[in-house]
Specification:
mainly beta
Length: 96
């Protein structure tokens, strides 16, 4: 019997261009059995994909594009979350 499972990939880019360099990433894979370790921060020094467009070329579907941050005058250099986050998903078929 075949089942469909979802993978979620979150890529943080250096700027809003979908071809810009990936600077951080996370992968959540529902094909991995419960109790087995998912990817962890620092597992790899190299990103899974160099850009969002590279992931799209490999079959990932974009489900959320980054919103442009609003920089208020006087606060341009404050640090916070990574602003250019793209959420992607891929459906995979597994045999059970």
């Amino acid at each position: 019997m075949s089942l469909t499972r979802q993978k979620i990939l979150i890529l943080h880019s250096s700027d809003p261009d979908l071809e810009s360099r990936t600077v951080a990433w996370a992968l959540y894979d529902s094909t991995i059995p419960k109790g087995q370790l998912q990817m962890n921060t620092g597992d790899s020094n190299e990103p899974i994909y160099g850009s969002v467009l590279d992931a799209m070329r490999d079959g990932w579907n974009v489900i959320q594009l980054p919103t442009m941050p609003i920089f208020r005058t006087g606060f341009e250099h404050e640090q916070g979350h990574l602003p250019y986050e793209t959420v992607l998903e891929k459906k995979v078929t597994i045999d059970e």
